[in-house]
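Thread amino acids onto this structure.
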């Protein structure tokens, strides 16, 4: 297990000027800056409420690693034990150790922590840091690249926030959001069906009206009136539509001396 202390500088970088505290909701391991899948090397991730700096006296109450420990329960020597009052399990891949619960997966939302985290605990897949080093070298991962952890969290705005109340409030909000999403299950399909049914009813009404109107029309039509005669020709009149003077053309084409 690797303990990383979240000092005041790291915590300050997570808060805006008007925010007074943060509470973790979910987390996941991202790829390294060079694209190496670091998530394949990490088995679990926890946050605890006490600092866990290296080389600190065991009598220093400000630093404590006991909230997340390994192999402290008989029969579960290969499992990580986390005190739920002082830590939050973000994800844990060992199904046997987590009793088959599916809640502890990457990006799985949890009830926000009732404390502001001060220590990040990482459980690696290899047996030791030396084994991890050898595995990274063999896989071609650059050892100087940092482990990238994405944490989703909520923040408080009160000057003296009650993190326990804020955690319960966020948990209830998340529950109501899930219930609302469950109520909307199939709503889009039902709306589309209702819209199609309304359009079908309107089309049938329009068809019936058109059919009745068409059936009511008489099939007899009076003869059309002849077109009006062309206007009389006079000198300097504008050109009119071309016309064929049949008899004059016929007389002009006949030979001399032949009667038309």
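Threaded sequence (260 positions):
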């Amino acid at each position: 297990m690797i303990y990383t202390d979240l000092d005041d500088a790291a915590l300050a970088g997570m808060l805006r000027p008007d925010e007074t505290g943060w509470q973790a909701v979910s987390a996941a391991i991202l790829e390294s800056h060079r694209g190496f899948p670091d998530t394949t090397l990490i088995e679990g991730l926890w946050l605890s409420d006490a600092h866990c700096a290296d080389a600190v006296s065991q009598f220093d109450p400000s630093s404590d690693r006991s909230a997340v420990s390994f192999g402290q329960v008989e029969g579960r020597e290969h499992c990580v034990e986390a005190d739920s009052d002082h830590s939050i399990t973000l994800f844990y891949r060992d199904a046997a150790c987590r009793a088959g619960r599916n809640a502890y997966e990457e990006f799985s939302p949890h009830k926000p922590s009732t404390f502001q985290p001060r220590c990040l605990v990482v459980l690696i897949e290899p047996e030791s840091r030396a084994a991890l080093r050898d595995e990274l070298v063999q896989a071609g991962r650059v050892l100087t690249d940092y482990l990238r952890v994405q944490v989703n969290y909520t923040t408080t705005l009160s000057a003296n926030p009650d993190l326990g109340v804020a955690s319960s409030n966020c948990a209830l909000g998340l529950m109501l959001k899930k219930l609302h999403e469950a109520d909307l299950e199939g709503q889009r399909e039902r709306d589309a069906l209702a819209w199609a049914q309304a359009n079908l009813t309107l089309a049938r009404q329009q068809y019936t009206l058109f059919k009745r109107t068409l059936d009511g029309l008489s099939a007899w039509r009076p003869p059309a009136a002849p077109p009006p005669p062309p206007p009389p020709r006079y000198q300097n009149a504008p050109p009119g539509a071309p016309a064929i003077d049949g008899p004059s053309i016929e007389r002009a084409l006949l030979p001399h001396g032949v009667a038309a």
